[in-house]
Design a protein that fits this description.
This protein is an alpha/beta fold and about 450 residues long. About 40% of the residues lie in helices and about 15% in strands. The strands form 3 sheets. Strands 2-1-3-4-5-6 form a 6-stranded mixed β-sheet, sandwiched between helices. Strands 7-10-11-12-13-14 form a 6-stranded parallel β-sheet. The protein has a two-stranded antiparallel sheet with strand order 8-9. Helix 2 crosses helix 3 and helix 9 packs across helix 10. Bound molecules: cobalamin and iron/sulfur cluster.
């Protein structure tokens, strides 16, 4: 089986793109899925189109030539596309280009399937735009294991989680309950040297060789704007397994720094504390960055994290207005954000805070409170995101009709998937919103360049 990970819009046509300045995370989800299938006896390759596009200076034609080379050399029986909403348009582009190559060469097409976040959430819309033989709904390990063991594709429909053009019900596939049964990633399946080269991924101040690593899946919370727990089952590895995985990835990829991909390491606080205690006992051999919710930050936990090698924490503070935080269903208070920031300053832990603007009903007063919170908390790094109701979130479900009416082309899906839909949800005229956006971008520029921000 060949996995195809489509490219993202950002790198199309970009001839110069230094990795250190424009780093990105290696695609851990697909590598782990592919490793699982390989360990079960399947022959697996991954065509990482983002890497092929960047390596070919942004040329789509050259990246597709490289992909066709892989198809001819490997002759896959199944090609599986993995994508989130932001890459739906590019999955379609690659699908039709590769199908045309098979037709020109008069070769039999492999079974073409889709999987990952977008096909899971919107299987019918996916099939309307991309005529896959099937999409697979949910976590891929067990359904693909069954699929690759079939002696005829006619039996495809018997596998739970398989959704075809004739399906009426979107049923999720079987999952592996015990995450420790998912083998450690075999990073040789992709260009590990490329992703682990020194970059400013963690800090603008310092070059690090970084790899992503996940302790858990999904999220214990369900904020209205977020799709994080839209289908993965919440569970984590054992501390023993995870520590072994850190050592394994560090030696495979020659790194000593990790980005922990979990939604919040506070969701499995007890288990994560065990990981930290063991890291401290071993002399804290790794540096790492992780996400944490503001309501899960207390002095004892943050001290433990820092002593175990944590060099930066990412917090979604989202808004300085309690009214908007409540409307988002974020289940945190402005005071908790202030306390988390104060603790990071006290314990000398760098921290990244992210905010959402353009949320439903947002007024000038709400945005003034957001600006006040940013200035009061003085993060090391700041992100400002424009709100779009992403598929998989409660906000998408609640406003589906309005969103679906605004999303007609595949490129609209890219805008929605990149949280960049040109729709205004705040309670203010669009020119007023644009003024706020400019002023937040300026504040972000100053903070991220470590220039002073006056009160
Ligand atoms: C890590 C991460 C990132 C990382 C790295 C991604 C990478 N290279 O791996 C970075 C930071 C780059 C990132 C960026 C973005 N992300 Co992101 N990201 C995640 C996160 C937290 C974890 C992904 C992961 O590893 N999951 C764990 C693995 C096990 O799950 P998985 O990858 O989905 O794979 C499983 C199944 O989907 C399935 N599967 C996957 N592929 C295939 C293929 C086939 C053929 C089959 C059958 C099955 C299958 O099997 C796998 C194993 O069970 C998810 C949250 C989440 N819950 O998934 C968000 C998430 C996927 N991201 C999201 C978003 C919105 C974004 C951004 C748009 C944010 C932004 N504004 O910039 C960008 C998009 C960038 C781009 N252009 O592609 C949304 C997607 C919602 C949607 N409808 O598309 C999610 C769900 C979180 C959220 N905010 O709501 N992201
Ligand atoms: S915003 Fe964070 S805490 Fe809320 S559901 Fe998403 S990942 Fe979980």
């Amino acid at each position: 089986m060949l996995f195809i990970i489509p490219w993202s819009e950002y790198y199309i046509g970009r001839s110069e793109c230094d990795f250190a300045q424009n780093p990105e995370r290696a695609p851990e989800g697909v590598v782990r899925l592919a490793t699982y299938l390989k360990n079960n006896g399947a022959e697996i390759r991954i065509a990482d189109m983002q890497y092929l596009l960047r390596k070919n200076c942004g040329s789509i034609a050259a990246a597709v030539d490289a992909l066709w080379g892989i198809c001819l050399d490997f002759t896959p029986e199944v090609i599986g596309f993995s994508f989130l909403t932001a890459r739906f348009e590019f999955a379609s582009d690659i699908f039709f280009k590769i199908k045309a190559r098979y037709a020109e060469a008069a070769l039999t097409l492999p079974l073409l399937i889709g999987g990952g976040v977008h096909p899971t959430l919107l299987p019918s819309i996916t099939l309307r735009h991309i005529p896959f033989d099937a999409v697979i709904i949910g976590e891929g390990e067990r359904p693909l294991e069954h699929l690759l063991a079939l002696d005829s594709w006619d039996k495809l429909g018997k596998i739970p989680g398989v959704f075809t053009a004739n399906s009426t019900v979107a049923e999720h596939g079987e999952i592996l309950e015990d995450l420790d049964k998912v083998p450690m990633p075999e990073w040789d399946l992709i260009a590990k040297e490329y992703y682990s080269q020194p970059s400013y991924l963690l800090s603008g101040k310092r070059l690090d060789r970084v790899m992503p690593i996940s302790f858990s899946r999904s999220c214990a919370y369900r904020c209205n704007f977020c799709a994080h727990n839209c289908f993965l089952k919440a569970r984590c590895h054992s501390a023993e397994y995870f520590l072994e995985m850190m050592d394994d990835v560090a030696s495979q990829c020659n790194v000593d720094t990790f980005i922990i991909q979990d939604s919040s390491i506070g969701n499995f606080k007890k288990e994560w504390s065990k990981v930290c205690q063991e890291l401290i006992r071993r002399g804290s051999p790794y540096k790492w960055w992780a996400n944490l919710r503001a309501n899960q930050a207390d002095e004892e936990f943050l001290t433990l994290l820092r002593n175990a090698g944590c060099i930066k924490l990412f917090f979604g503070f989202e808004s300085g207005s309690q009214r908007i935080l409540d409307r988002m269903g974020k289940s945190i208070t402005v005071e908790q954000c202030e306390q988390a920031a104060d603790l990071c300053h006290k314990l000398d832990i760098d921290f990244y805070t992210s905010y959402i603007i353009n949320y439903f009903g947002e007024t000038d007063e709400d945005l003034e409170l957001t600006e006040k919170l940013i200035r009061r908390t003085r993060p090391t790094t700041l992100a400002i995101n424009r709100f779009s109701p992403i598929p998989g979130s409660k906000d998408y479900e609640l406003h589906k009709e309005e969103i679906d009416a605004a999303v007609t082309t595949l490129h609209d899906w890219t805008n929605l998937g990149m949280l960049n839909l040109p729709l205004h949800f705040g309670n203010m005229p669009s020119d007023r919103y644009a003024q706020w956006e400019r002023s937040f971008r300026e504040l972000k520029r100053k903070i991220n360049r470590h220039e002073g921000i006056d009160d």
